[in-house]
Design goal:
There is one protein chain. The protein contains 21 helices and 32 strands. With about 650 residues, it is α/β, with parallel strands linked by helices. The strands form nine sheets. It has a seven-stranded mixed beta sheet with strand order 6-5-18-17-19-20-21, with helices on both faces. Strands 8-7-9-12-13 form a five-stranded parallel beta sheet, sandwiched between helices. Strands 25-26-28-29 form a four-stranded antiparallel beta sheet. Strand 22 and strand 23 form a beta hairpin. Helix 3 packs across helix 4, helix 8 runs parallel beside helix 9 and helix 15 crosses helix 17. The longest helix is centred in the first third of the chain and has 17 residues. It is globular, with a radius of gyration of 24 Å.
Length: about 650
């Protein structure tokens, strides 16, 4: 596929029909502007952030009292506060819908199917709200959940938010210590867990883990039935009850929403924690709501009644992003389990049956579908699908090509990037501009994104640090247990004074798009030249012989040398010819500087629960340094494969 032409172009009709176009016209009318392009709109949104975020509030119909002021303390990013006089409730904004229409559709692998109307969801939230209050849970208290991505999880979160409690969640595949490393820091007043779950066609028992975590936390426990015996799990867990028993005394009633300040804490999310105990990142109700409404309504063009899907677990911030789709009036399509059980068609079967408008997933999943030989474009009716989003790691140019050749020709593909730190996106798609192969379409509205060199100067057409130079609503309120904000400052403001440094190695393109070359702390520096790991992965993972790869820099003879680990496809051996083929591919596709000094075959590659490979943990192991928090990994045993390798001694 040619790179001198875009992969997708919005039609004039689709542009005019988009909510973003309507928003731009509303801003023109309200402020006497003449904005015509996305570049115009983005420039105005950054230059006039107070007008812009007020316009988002109005256009998206935020429920609450906005107050008089929009932004204070703007001179210092870490102290800036948006809508300091506003009060709202996050759950009230997500539960505006009523009636028998679908609020949530759920599939748990091929084992469970369910549909929840808006009324059914509101009824459970009401009963949970009453039960939480009976437990004395109110503003500022924490509710922690180890749950599958199922409707009851959404209802619990909404009930917690409705009374002003702070929600935090992880997936049930976390190990006992991994759960305690997270929730043990925040002292939850209630712990919510499932009785079992399905993965890969197998029933996964969590009885002993739930009991152990409950004992470690010392919190009351509610056990939610999914795939096991909730009553049995509750009997064997200290201070536990089942969901049915928890809500039995309460009938559905009119929902009550506690309106709290815009910056009141809503979520506690956790850093990946692969180099230490996870950081507890606290996000506000108002900042999360406003940023998600902007991304869903404007950037994704989401309309009431459309089906929104993201393949995620409750341990990844994309779950928090997904559930905010309710605020638009969209139907959430939830999935829990393996996307390859019983086979690789399962998510496309789901997309066809429910007529997804938006299909969100990871770059790793797209690559896995490509390598599986599936061609959903030929096997499934995806005529309703208008937007596909990808995140988790950079999507390779070949991944872009596969989406258009193998999934759907006329879909908008939005590679997006942001993260747990901002519970949203810095750079993402928009419906007014073309999609170019290998490029994220551009910066998000209201976000003063740039790429800076090591000296702090903006650069174009070369790699540098992704920064944000002005405050934005979804900055964390704080880190938990960080009273002097030392951890917060160190995380984002240590590199450049009063500038958010995100930790991504990025580059502007000639189309004003963005390419993410990997994490800054994982970049390679052979001979003092910075190389993004994604540049190497983009080459080697296109080879059918290579299933997956991981690249690090090894300290060697007063320099750094590039080491490439490969997990090979079944039946493939790392022969001299294969090593030569890999090096040739990297040399011709990237550059001679990218060619690794060593290529080593391994049986597995460690990754986080959300599927991200952990370059830093492998780098620590290779250098003989301890990895402090293996519980953050989905397959911690894989780290042993990298310890004391004889190939790395010469």
């Amino acid at each position: 596929m040619r790179d001198d032409k875009p992969l997708w172009m919005p039609s004039p009709a689709s542009i005019k029909a988009s909510p973003m176009h309507a928003f731009m016209q509303a801003c023109n009318d309200a402020h006497g502007l003449a904005l015509e392009t996305y570049g115009d709109l983005h420039g105005w949104s950054v230059a006039e952030r107070e007008h812009f975020w007020n316009a988002v509030w109005n256009f998206c119909g935020v429920i609450g009292d906005r107050g008089a002021r929009t932004l204070i303390n703007d001179d210092t990013m870490i102290d800036a506060r948006f809508f300091p006089d506003a009060t709202l409730n996050f759950a009230e904004n997500l539960l505006a819908g009523k009636g028998h229409g679908d609020a949530i559709v759920f599939r748990g692998e091929d084992k469970v199917e369910d549909r929840w109307s808006w009324d059914r969801l509101r009824d459970l939230v009401s009963r949970l709200q009453q039960a939480l209050r009976s437990e004395g849970i109110g503003p500022g208290d924490r509710v922690a959940a180890m749950m599958p991505n199922m409707p009851e999880t959404v209802a619990f979160m909404l009930a917690a938010a409705s009374v002003g409690a702070i929600w935090s969640s992880c997936s049930p595949d976390f190990g006992e210590q991994g759960v305690l490393d997270r929730f043990g820091q925040i002292g939850p007043k209630l712990f919510v867990a499932c009785d079992a779950y399905w993965y890969g066609g197998k029933l996964q028992d969590v009885k002993e883990k739930v009991a152990a975590v409950a004992k470690g936390l010392g919190s009351p426990v509610v056990v939610v039935h999914y795939a096991g015996d909730a009553e049995a799990v509750a009997r064997e867990t200290p201070n536990a009850t089942t969901l049915d028993t928890f809500i039995a005394p309460y009938d559905p009633a009119e929902l009550e929403f506690v309106r709290l300040p815009f910056s009141h804490p809503l979520y506690i999310l956790f850093s990946s924690g692969t180099t230490g105990v996870p950081k507890c990142i606290v996000h506000s109700a108002g900042g999360t709501l406003l940023q998600h409404l902007k991304e869903h309504r404007l950037h994704c063009g989401l309309q009431p009644g459309e089906k929104l899907f993201y393949f995620t677990t409750c341990g990844w911030m994309m779950w928090n992003w997904l559930v905010s789709g309710l605020a638009v009036g969209a139907t959430l399509c939830l999935f829990d389990g393996s996307p390859f059980a019983p086979d690789g068609n399962v998510l496309f079967d789901y997309a066809q049956a429910e007529r997804f408008a938006v299909f969100g997933t990871s770059a790793k999943y797209i690559d896995a579908v490509r390598k599986s030989g599936l061609v959903p474009r030929s096997s499934h009716d995806l005529s309703s699908l208008r937007l596909m989003t990808s995140t988790g790691s950079p999507l390779s140019p070949e991944g872009f090509t596969f989406v258009y050749e193998g999934i759907k020709e006329d879909v908008q593909l939005a590679s997006i990037s942001g993260g747990t730190d901002i519970v949203s996106c810095f750079v993402l798609g928009n419906p007014l501009q073309p999609v170019w192969r290998g490029e994220i379409q551009g910066a998000g509205l209201g976000l003063a994104i740039d790429v800076w060199d090591d000296e702090g100067y903006p650069v174009r057409g070369q790699k540098g640090e992704l920064v944000c130079t002005k405050a934005f609503p979804s900055m964390p309120v704080m880190f938990w247990n960080d009273p002097d904000r030392a951890k917060y400052r160190a995380a984002y403001f240590e590199r450049f004074d009063n500038i958010w440094c995100h930790g991504d190695f990025a580059e502007w393109t000639e189309h004003d798009g963005i390419v993410i070359h990997g994490r800054s702390d994982a970049t390679l520096n052979p001979g003092g030249v910075r190389i993004g790991t994604a540049e190497i992965y983009n080459q080697v993972e296109q080879m059918t012989e290579v299933a997956e790869a991981l690249c690090i820099g090894q300290e060697w003879e007063d320099d750094v040398r590039v080491i490439l680990f490969v997990r090979l496809a079944a039946g493939v051996a790392l022969t001299d010819e294969m090593v030569k083929a890999i090096k040739t591919r990297i040399r011709t596709g990237a550059s001679p500087r990218h060619v690794p000094a060593k290529i080593i075959a391994v049986a597995d590659i460690p990754r986080t629960k959300s599927g991200k490979i952990v370059e830093l943990a492998v780098r620590e192991i290779v250098h003989g340094r301890p990895v402090k928090n293996k519980e953050a990994l989905a397959n911690p045993e894989a780290l042993d494969l990298f310890a004391a390798l004889p190939e790395l001694r010469s």
